[in-house]
């Protein structure tokens, strides 16, 4: 009703009032949305009328959230409690069964045009040929194939099952265009999705045809029976198609090498058609040992956050993009912007960031020389341990096809660790770390090689290697054992520096001296006991306190019952791997570690002297009574405004 323009003036104010008082009937419950989501979002976004451009965003938000998270309410009777995404087809069938629905065929985006720009003409055909995807035995076999397959990401598996369940007969022939004639009906051509889903089998054969080593017109049923199934004698078939027995056996061996298909990668939009047909047709044509092993499904590539469209003019031809930005930066930008199923966003800012990162690594490769690695300092053992973990994490991410995660490990996550290593080495005024840095950079380049092969080979050469990076051994091990003690040491030192920085930030003082107090012996034993309880699944404070009091070595806990709760929180806030590492190394001499490894860092960072005392040291200087608050791996810190032990 367009009342603002003066139309429909005959409508009375009473009628308008009645319309405004109509309460919609809620049929969908969605977490985070109210009983009337449309009303709530219109008010939240300040939408004034139906011409407000924000209305489209509001509609998308509600439709998306309701479709994937909405649950049908109790008033929907037999559909109550079901997700919208699950119940959609059931409701459609039910409405059709009770004859309250009809089918309306329409072209929503007329005129329809193909990729080449030509107009597509739809024609109803009689005497059409179909693939009977509704066949129960065929469906059952295909379900079995899917159950034995690896689907990445695994959450897409249910979509394949649903598609397979609702698939029925599908036209497999057409009368116009390019294609192969249907063998039993020469007036028809094989429709592309009827046979292109097994193109990987044809690829093995096509190169021999293209090289004219075999004649494409001579490929009989017997030829395919031999290549695909190993049936009949190769010599007998070779004579019939004018080729050699050796050539047929070569093709058969190549097929046996490449089959079954190890992994099929494609977009999510092909789940309801091409990818499901791919499995169906392989199940129909090949023995079980040659059924597909894996399907990997990815999202689309967006351009600046928007779907690519010729009408929007935001498509960059691939060759032009490679000329402008380079193949490696493009590949990395797409991979690092999203995981599987998510839409990757290609934008100039992101690609420039990747290019800068690659150029920085390339420059480092040219500067760092391979030198003999010296006797390892604690920070050296630590950085090699971190590198070992990096190689392991990248390998695991790649095994799961989580390439975004793998690239973040290689390009970014390791940088913060490397900066800490530089900081530690600089504070000790070390000049002998070139060999260590060369080994670290070499490992990172090898990990980068599968993702950015061109620049990785250049980096590899700059590092002084004559062989190709792509032919080198994957750095699953850097040749040095992971040193748990060094990991605990550096974690402790970093945590103390962070605490000092926070104290100085809050107090806004410039200290003249810093004093650190480490926990006394019984607290360390109590810490290890609490840690063991946590690893065994026991986190009840009362139970832990009782067990500590019962032990003579830790009965002092009676003097400080809050220690257990605080220590328990300390342990639970740490990563699981760190907890296990601390359990493995047992008690450590924190005072010795801090005295020997932190003094130079404190001097370098704050230009002050560092004193370290044990909480139990009778000669300690502790004017603020800070020492008693020390806990294992959480020493107490005092920043002094004077240098002498007295004001």
Structure description:
The protein is mostly helical. Helices cover 50% and strands 9% of the residues. The protein is built from 26 helices and 16 strands. It has a 3-stranded parallel β-sheet with strand order 4-10-9, with helices on one face. Strands 6-8-7 form a 3-stranded antiparallel β-sheet. Helix 2 (37-44) packs antiparallel against helix 3. It is globular, with a radius of gyration of 35 Å. The chain starts with 12 loop residues before the first helix and ends in a 7-residue tail after the last strand.
Strand order across the biggest sheet?
A: 4-10-9
Classify the secondary structure makeup into a structural class. Answer: mainly alpha
Estimate the strand proportion. Answer: 5-15%
Radius of gyration: 35 Å
The global form is globular
Task: Report the count of strand segments.
Answer: 16
The helix tally amounts to 26
Poorly predicted ranges: 1-9
Task: Report the biggest beta sheet as strand number plus sense, adding barrel if it closes.
Answer: 3 strands, parallel
Helical proportion, percent range = 40-55%
The overall average pLDDT, rounded, is: 86
Task: Give the CA-CA distance, first to last residue.
Answer: 83 Å
């Amino acid at each position: 009703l367009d009342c603002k323009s003066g139309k429909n003036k005959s409508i009375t104010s009473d009628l308008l009032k009645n319309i405004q008082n109509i309460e919609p009937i809620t049929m969908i419950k969605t977490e985070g949305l109210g009983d009337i989501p449309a009303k709530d979002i219109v008010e939240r976004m300040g939408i004034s009328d139906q011409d407000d451009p924000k209305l489209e965003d509001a509609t998308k938000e509600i439709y998306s959230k309701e479709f994937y998270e909405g649950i049908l309410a109790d008033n929907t009777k037999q559909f109550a409690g079901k997700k919208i995404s699950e119940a959609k087809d059931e409701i459609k069938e039910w409405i059709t069964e009770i004859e309250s629905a009809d089918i309306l065929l329409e072209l929503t985006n007329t005129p329809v045009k193909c990729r080449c720009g030509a107009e597509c003409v739809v024609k109803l055909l009689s005497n059409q040929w179909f693939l009977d995807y509704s066949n129960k035995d065929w469906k059952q076999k295909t379900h079995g194939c899917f159950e034995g397959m690896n689907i990445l990401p695994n959450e897409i598996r249910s979509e394949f099952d649903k598609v397979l369940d609702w698939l029925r007969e599908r036209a497999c022939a057409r009368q116009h265009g390019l294609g192969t004639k249907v063998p039993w009906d020469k007036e028809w051509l094989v429709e592309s999705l009827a046979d292109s889903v097994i193109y990987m089998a044809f690829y093995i054969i096509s190169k021999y045809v293209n090289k004219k080593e075999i004649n494409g017109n001579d490929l009989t049923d017997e030829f395919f029976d031999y290549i695909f199934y190993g049936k009949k004698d190769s010599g007998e078939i070779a004579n019939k198609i004018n080729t050699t027995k050796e050539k047929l056996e070569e093709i058969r061996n190549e097929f046996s090498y490449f089959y079954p298909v190890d992994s099929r990668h494609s977009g999510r939009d092909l789940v309801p058609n091409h990818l499901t047909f791919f499995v169906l047709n392989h199940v129909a044509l090949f023995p079980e040992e040659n059924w597909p092993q894996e399907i990997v499904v990815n999202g689309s590539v967006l351009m600046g956050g928007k779907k690519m469209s010729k009408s929007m003019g935001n498509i960059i031809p691939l060759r032009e993009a490679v000329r402008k930005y380079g193949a490696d930066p493009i590949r990395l930008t797409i991979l690092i912007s999203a995981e599987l199923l998510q839409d990757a966003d290609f934008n100039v800012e992101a690609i420039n960031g990747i290019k800068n990162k690659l150029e920085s690594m390339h420059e480092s490769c040219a500067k760092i020389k391979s030198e003999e690695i010296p006797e390892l300092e604690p920070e050296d053992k630590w950085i090699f341990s971190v590198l070992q973990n990096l190689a392991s994490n990248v390998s695991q991410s790649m095994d799961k096809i989580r390439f975004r995660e793998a690239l973040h490990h290689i390009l970014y996550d390791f940088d913060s660790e490397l900066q800490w290593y530089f900081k530690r080495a600089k504070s000790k005024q070390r000049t002998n770390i070139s060999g260590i840095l060369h080994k670290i950079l070499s490992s990172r380049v090898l990990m980068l090689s599968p993702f950015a092969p061109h620049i990785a080979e250049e980096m590899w050469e700059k590092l002084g290697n004559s062989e190709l990076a792509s032919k080198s051994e994957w750095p699953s091990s850097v040749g040095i054992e992971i040193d748990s003690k060094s990991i605990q040491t550096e974690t402790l030192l970093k945590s103390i520096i962070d605490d000092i920085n926070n104290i100085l930030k809050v107090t806004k003082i410039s200290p003249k001296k810093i004093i650190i107090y480490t926990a006394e012996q019984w607290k360390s034993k109590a810490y290890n006991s609490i840690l063991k309880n946590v690893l065994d699944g026991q986190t009840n404070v009362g139970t832990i306190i009782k067990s500590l009091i019962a032990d003579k070595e830790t009965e002092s806990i009676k003097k400080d019952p809050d220690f257990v709760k605080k220590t328990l929180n300390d342990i639970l806030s740490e990563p699981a791997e760190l907890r296990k590492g601390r359990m493995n190394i047992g008690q450590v001499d924190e005072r010795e570690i801090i005295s020997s490894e932190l003094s130079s860092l404190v001097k370098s960072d704050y230009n002050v002297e560092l004193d370290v005392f044990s909480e139990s040291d009778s000669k300690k200087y502790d004017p603020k009574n800070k020492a008693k608050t020390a806990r294992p791996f959480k020493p107490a810190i005092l920043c002094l405004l004077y240098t002498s032990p007295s004001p």
